[in-house]
Design goal:
The protein is an alpha/beta fold and about 500 residues long. It has three domains: about 200 residues, FAD/NAD(P)-binding domain (3-Layer(bba) Sandwich), CATH 3.50.50.60; about 110 residues, Guanine Nucleotide Dissociation Inhibitor, domain 1 (Orthogonal Bundle), CATH 1.10.405; about 120 residues, Guanine Nucleotide Dissociation Inhibitor, domain 2, CATH 3.30.519. It is about 35% helix and about 20% strand. The N and C termini lie close together (about 10 Å).
């Protein structure tokens, strides 16, 4: 059927939906308010330094491969995926280190070095997380989700004991690992979806399983190369893409979405509308006022935001890997600051992505690029970032210097700061939440706005703010799922 679809927002979810729908014969117009596509998966290039400002690690690469197959192309002809032998290097203030290797014998050696008894615990943990993956992958990740009824399949009910939803991630991790260092490492994976290990259900131990079982991958040239590649796929299929085209309103007539208004002036008619913008933002700013729906999307807890430093450094720090974590001393206190007190943690865990380690062209010779991220509360917390950003930046730099990055402040030759307020403004992300809603309770997965709007016909949502959640593979699967729903109607 030759139907027209307008997609509002050119993030990875919007691109995925566009590819699936165009491959099925729909006429697609994709509108992006910014100059670049990609949404939070974006790029800043300045003074010879290149920074991926969104996801920095690819898991579940089969999702990208399937998307290429839908478009009639081969991933290998367009992208070079590089499996990182060292997925991440973890470091603590007492100079303890842990290298998360991909090769199992090397990984087990690292675990044994910290706590010999935890080798057996890790093997049990992998078997346990495999059970979770097998129970939830099909109904939650790989299939369209249109409400609680879709999830409560006979198979999932039968296997509900396997998903360990009544314990927290931390409680589960403590049952497998004795080393406080390893407990912190495995608790850290909840930050992949912006949540707290002390509140998120243990079901989310599926995240480290996916990384250890399927590997962590880097895309040669940088993660933004994926956005460029999917843009080419969409254009190959005839998708009409417009950047710097802000949608100011969805045209709703007689309870149905009938198109969009661009820049407050031009109307583009469509048979269906897909919104690749946080649903909370859409209901507040793009759709007719519906107080009950806005309130419903406000109640679930937002994920954390982030305080970001983009640093160009005129030296090489040999102990810095592609991915690095410098852990805080008191992890529970850090998450309590973010989610309970809603203030920036005074002793934060600091993540550094130095893609120039794998891609030397991402920095001038003898230099490094460093994407520095600290988890932070959303903008409805108790901090004025306009006043506090510089001081918080100085604290982060000083802490990195204490943890082995000697004289870092003296070697910075390029710098940019991004606060939660900047993230909120740039990506229309409520509160600057990077991952949409948090997963800090048993029901969080069911509280996400569904792919198909309940109150407006012909209107759909895609991306990290809806099912199944944030991160490259899940957002791409969201695009596939919404396309399946639209094509079935």
């Amino acid at each position: 059927m030759d139907q027209s679809v307008v997609i509002v927002g050119g993030g990875l979810g919007g691109l995925s939906a566009a590819i699936h729908l165009a491959a099925a014969g729909r006429r697609i117009t994709l509108l992006e308010k910014n100059a670049r596509l990609g949404g939070k998966a974006n790029l800043i290039a300045e003074q010879g330094y290149f920074f991926d400002t969104g996801p920095s690690l690819l898991t579940m690469p089969w999702v990208v491969r399937q998307l290429y197959e839908v478009a009639g192309k081969r991933l290998e002809d367009d992208l070079e995926l590089v499996q990182l032998e060292l997925t991440c290097r973890y470091q603590w203030l007492d100079h303890t280190t842990f290298n998360a290797f991909q090769t199992l014998p090397l990984l087990l050696q690292e675990i044994e070095r910290l706590e010999p008894r935890d080798v057996e615990g890790f093997l049990r943990f992998v078997a346990y997380t495999r059970r979770i993956y097998d129970a939830v992958a099909e109904p939650f990740l790989k299939s369209p989700f249109d409400g609680l009824g879709d999830m409560l399949t006979p198979a999932l009910i039968r296997d509900s004991w396997k998903i360990d939803s009544l314990r927290t991630v931390d409680a589960s991790v403590r049952s497998f690992f004795r080393s406080p260092y390893l407990r912190q490492v495995f608790n850290r994976y909840t930050t992949y979806n912006g949540s707290s290990p002390y509140r998120a259900p243990a079901t989310f131990n599926i995240i480290p399983y996916v990384e250890f079982a399927e590997g962590g991958w880097y895309i040669k040239g940088g993660m933004y190369v994926l956005v460029e590649a999917l843009t080419r796929l969409a254009q190959h299929l005839g998708v009409d893409i417009h950047t710097e085209a802000p949608v100011t309103r969805v045209a709703v007539e007689h309870g149905s979405a009938r198109g969009v208004i661009v820049a407050g002036e031009e109307r583009i008619d469509a048979d269906q509308v897909v919104i690749n913008v946080d649903p909370h933002y859409a209901y507040q700013h793009l759709l007719p006022p519906k107080k009950c729906v806005v309130q419903a999307t406000q109640q679930p807890e937002l994920s954390c935001s982030g305080f970001v430093l983009l640093l160009g450094v005129n030296r090489i720090y040999e102990h810095i890997a592609h991915h690095n974590i410098f852990f805080s001393h008191d992890y529970p206190r850090e998450f309590a600051a973010i989610f309970d007190k809603r203030i920036p943690p005074a002793d934060p865990t600091i993540y550094i992505c130095a893609s120039s380690v794998s891609d030397p062209d991402h920095a001038p010779p003898g230099h490094m690029n460093m994407f520095v991220l600290v988890n932070a509360p959303t903008t409805n917390g108790h901090v004025n970032w306009q006043h506090e950003a510089e001081g918080y930046r100085n604290m982060v730099i000083a802490r990195l210097e204490r943890m082995g990055m000697t004289n870092l402040s003296q070697h910075i030759v390029y710098e940019q700061i991004m606060t939660p307020a900047d993230i909120e403004s740039l990506y229309n992300a409520p509160g600057g939440a990077i991952y949409g809603l948090a997963s800090n309770n048993l029901w969080s997965a069911f509280l996400r706005p569904p792919l198909r709007a309940r109150d407006i016909a012909r209107l759909y949502f895609v991306g990290g703010g809806t099912h199944p959640g944030g991160g490259i593979p899940l957002v791409l699967l969201s695009g596939r799922a919404v396309a399946h729903q639209m094509l079935s109607r």
